[in-house]
Amino acid sequence: MRNPNRSAVRPALWLGATVITLGLVATGCGDDKKDTATTDPTTTVAGSTFDYASLSATINGSGSSFQDTLQQTVKGEFAKVATGATVNYAKSGSSAGKTDLQTKTVQFAGTDSLIKDEDKEKFAGGEVLYFPIAAAPITVSYNAPGVDGLKLTADVIAGIFQGEITTWTDPKIAADNAGVTLPDKPIVVVHRSDGSGTTSNFTKFLKAAAPTVWKLDSGDTVNWPANTQGAEKNSGVAKIVKDTVGAIGYVDLSDAVSAGLQRASVKNVDGKFVEAKLPGASAALAGTTVKDDLTFNPINAAGAESYPITAPTWMIVYAKQEDAKVAETLKGYLNFMLTTGEDLANGVGYAKLPTELNARAIAQISKITS
Questions:
Q1: Distance CA 229, CA 218 (A)
Q2: For labelling alongside 23, which of 122, 199, 253, 326 has CA 20 to 30 A away?
Q3: What CATH architecture does domain 138-286 belong to?
Q4: Which fold has domain 41-134+313-367?
Q5: Are 334 and 294 in contact (CB under 8 A)?
Q6: Do the Cβ atoms of 327 and 321 come closer than 8 Å?
Q7: 0.70 exceeded by the pTM?
Q8: For 2-29, how does the pLDDT look when each residue is reduced to its tens digit (9 = 90+)?
Q9: 152 strand-pairing partners
Q10: Residue 199: which residues within 8 A CB-CB, separation 6 or more?
C-alpha cells in the first residue's frame, strides 16, 4: 500500500541532497581530461532549439544513488539557465525509483538496472523510454591499512562476498598479491540493504565472471550471508567501509573517491588487472553493443584496458506526458543532461557516453509528447 505521507517527505529529501564538488571527485577518477562546461540559455541539437529560459514546470525524479552526484551537479547548472523551472532528484535506490515512476509519483526515474519483463505491465503510463546518461566503475573498496594496490580476481571477490573467504591472509587473496603484507584480520563484508542497481550490476559481474564460484544469483537485491553488514545507498556502504578496519564493499566511484577509500584493481576477461578509474570504464563502453531501446551491458566487457565492473545508468520516462509544460521541461532537462551534462561527467566521476550513443539518446527526446 502506498504511504500517504510519501509526497510530504520527498521535498525534504530533495532539499537535503548533497552536491559533491567537481574538484574533490576529479582528484581520484584517473587520467581522463576534465572538461569545462558552458551553459547557454538556448542549445541547438539535431535541428531543434531548446529555449531553457522558457521552461516553467517542476519535474521530480528519484532512484539511483549511483547517478546522484551527476544529477545534483547537472541540475544545479540547469537552474542557472532554466530559471523558471525546477528539477528535484532524491536518491532512493533504483528499485524505489522504478516504483515511483510506476505510480507517477515522479516524472523520471534514475536506474542502473532494467525493468524486469514481469514488471512491465505495472507501468500504467504506457511506453517507457530509456535515456542513457553515463557509465562509471563500481569499485571494490576496502579498509586494510598498509595494503596498497590490492589485486582481486572475480573468483576471489565472489568467495569474499558470499562468506567463503573470511580473512585477509587467505591464500587465495595472497596468490595475486605477492610481496604485499596482508593484515591478519577478519574480512567484514558490506553490501547494499536497499533495492539497488549497483547491487544488480555487481552481482551480474560475479555471475558472468565467476560462474563456478558465485551462488547468490544477481538482482537489485540478493540473499546475502547473515554475517555481512547492509547499508542504504552507495554513500552508506562507503561510510561503513571507511569506519571499519577490515571491511570491503562495492561502491560507485564518486562515493568511493569522496570517502577516500582504497580501491582494488580487478582482473578482466583479458586477464589484466585494471584500476577502477574512468579510462577503464570508457574502454568497456567502447565495445558495447547497444540495443534499439538504448539499453546495453558493459559488464565484463572484453578488452585489455576495460574495467570489468563498469555500470551503465539511465533516466527513464514515460513517452506520453499528461501536461505540456511538464513535457517540455522534461525534454529540456534531458537535452541539458545529454549535452552540458556530458561535459561535466568526467569531473564528477562518470565516463561520457560514446558519441554515437549520445546522439541516439538526444534524437530520442522527440518521442516525448503530451
A1: 18
A2: 199
A3: 3-Layer(aba) Sandwich (3.40)
A4: D-Maltodextrin-Binding Protein; domain 2 (3.40.190)
A5: no
A6: yes
A7: yes
A8: 343 333 333 333 333 333 333 334 434 5
A9: 266
A10: 191, 192, 219, 220, 221, 222, 250
